[in-house]
Each structure stands twice: as C-alpha cells, then as structure tokens.
Amino acid sequence: MKTKAAAVLAIAVMLLPLVAGQYTITSISITVYADGYVKIVEVIQPENYTVSVTIPLLAANVEGLVVIDERGSPLPYEINGSTLIVYFENATGIKITYYTPDLTVKNRAIWSVRVGSNIPVKITFPENAVIVDLSDIPLEINGNSIVMPAGNQTVSYVLEYLPAGTETAQTQTTQSISETSASESFVNSTAPSTTGSSTETPSGSSTSWATIGILALLALSISGFIYLKSGREESGSAPSISREDFEKRLTEYDLTKDEEKALLYLFDRGGKARQSEVRETLGIPKTTAWRMFQRLEKQGLVRVYKKKRENWVELRL
C-alpha cells in the first residue's frame, strides 16, 4: 500500500510542472489616458514543458483583455477577479493586454497612478500631463514616458488645458478598447530603412588651389566657432540685465524659495550650471531637485539638457 502511494506521489510530482508552470515577467508598460483609464501590457516568458500559467493581474476591473503568443495567435484563458490562467502549447512568449481604471485616483486637479511590480515599469502619460510628484527617481525619461524602479510606485500629475476640439490618441480610450483585439501583435512593426544615394564626381574633373584654400578657411572658421561655443557653454554668457532687475522679474512668477534661490544661483553663474552643482548649493535631495527643475522647465524659465553625461540647467528668462 505504501509503495503504491509513493508511486502515485512520484507521478504527481512529475506532472506538476505540466499543469501549472513557472514564468518570468520580461516587461510591463502602462499607458495613461486623460480620463483615468490605463492600458497595461505585460510580456511573460513561461518555462519549458509547461501548458498553463497563473498570473496575478495588476487590477481587478479588467476590460478589453487580449492574450496572444509570440506568433500573435490568441490563447485560451480563464479569469477570476485579478487572477488570470492562460493555457497554451509550445509558447515561448505570452503578451497580455488589458484596460482598467483601478490604477489611477484623482484628488481635485491632481491625478495619481499607483503600481506595484517586481520589475521596472514604463509609464507613458498624455501629452498634456505635467508630473508634480514622484515616489522615486525614474530610471529613464524619454519625452512623456518614464521608467520607474521595481516596487510600489506612485506618480502624481496634472493635465494642462487643451483647447476645445483638440484630440489626441490617448483620449480615445473607448475606441482603443474596442480595437485592441484587432490590432494587437506580439512584435512591434519597424519602419523601413532608407538608403541615401551618393553623387559621384566625374573622374576627369580637377580641383583648383583656390578651392582648397576656401575649404581650409571654412574649416578654420568652423573650428573657431566650435571653440568659442564650447567656451561659452562652460562659463555661461553674461546676463543682459542687472541682478536687481532679475530679482524683480522673479516676483512675476509663483515660485518657491528654493526655486528663487536656484534661478538666482544660475544668474550669478552666468546663466547656466550643472544640475548637481545647484542641488548641492541649495542642499536639497535629488528627487526634490529633479521635480523643481521639471516645474521650472514647464514654465519656460530654464532649459535642462545633457552634456558629458551630466544634466545642465540654463536660464531662459
């Protein structure tokens, strides 16, 4: 009897991976819409020799759910609350797409999107969104998209006013949900590459010494311009107004004390400085400095740019 029970247990252990397999989440991306809905795309990689996976979704209220394999073929699934069970054969990748209003909350004019994940999450905001608070420093910033670190993250934002009749792709939530099943694919299409054509100089043409001289002078002029430009970027150009007049202009804006100090420091430094230098001078944390310069840049008061792997800030007043 004991031998038979042991045999049954051994068979069950052998079949267990075929019933409910393990998986790895390779990417999570979230697109935030102006009405508070978000589109979630999760890509997972199941282990070999598995025929089903059980995946906890990021929300319980799910709409427009689509599950496909790496070939773009739909996969059967069951959903129970926020738990998804996907069935498949020989799939090496699974893409899950769905919409939900559960990840966003609104307090007056401020929206917040909250997400918890074991891997970094890419969040894309509407074009008229202005981020006002972050729970952590983003790993990457690209236009209106940021990549937040793993863990429980919250990003707060406000939506700037759009004139009547202005439409963006991210305001068409209902249309997007209805078209998801028809348009989803596992691999994004790539734009065709273009090849430029070169023009050959006839072999019989000759180059005069005058042409060589002109080219040499042109090269010297360009070199001098680059040298002068780099020198100005390092030291900053002298402001065209006095410090007193500059302070008066700052009173026209609704600025915090730290923002005023940062702008005055940039003024005293000739109009530009490293972001880390300003932060250290003011004695504020990195996240606070990042949010501050984001607000100032949105108001058109500064320009933030990369130079030699460092963030620089330049006055635009």
From TrEMBL:
Domain named Transcription regulator TrmB N-terminal is located at 250-308
Query: Which Gene3D superfamilies does the entry link to?
Result: Winged helix-like DNA-binding domain superfamily/Winged helix DNA-binding domain
Q: Where are the transmembrane segments?
A: 209-228
Question: What InterPro entries does the database record attribute to this sequence?
Answer: ArsR-like_HTH, Tscrpt_reg_TrmB_N, WH-like_DNA-bd_sf, WH_DNA-bd_sf
**Which CDD domains does the protein's record reference?**
HTH_ARSR (cd00090)
Listed A to Z, the keywords are: Membrane, Transmembrane, Transmembrane helix
Q: Which residues form the signal peptide?
A: none
The record's region (Disordered) falls at 170-206
User: Which superkingdom does the taxonomy of this entry point to?
Assistant: Archaea
Q: Which Pfam families match?
A: TrmB (PF01978)
Q: What is the protein name given in its UniProt record?
A: Hypothetical membrane protein, conserved
